[in-house]
Amino acid sequence: xxxxxxxxMNKSTFKSTIxxxxxxxxxxxxxxxxxxxxxxxEIASNLGKSWHTVIRYCLDLxxxxxIFKFELGRIAxxxxxx
Length: 82
What we know:
Layout: H1 3-33, E1 38-39, H2 40-47, H3 51-63, E2 67-72, E3 75-80
Antiparallel strand pairs: 1-3, 2-3
Helix pairs in contact: 1-3, 2-3
């Protein structure tokens, strides 16, 4: 494998790491500034991301202990842990 290829892969990995943390920060900011819990669909719509992308990051944030989920029927709603 060429050095340039390895370096290129590392740059790509670095970019996706930054993007991931930006999305998580945006989700946290949105939930902190909301007066009510937000559904996954509402978060996705506000961020311009897919529902699947948002649920993945919300589950990560839940595992990290920053937000929690409760369900209203079939809808998952998210709120910041205080």
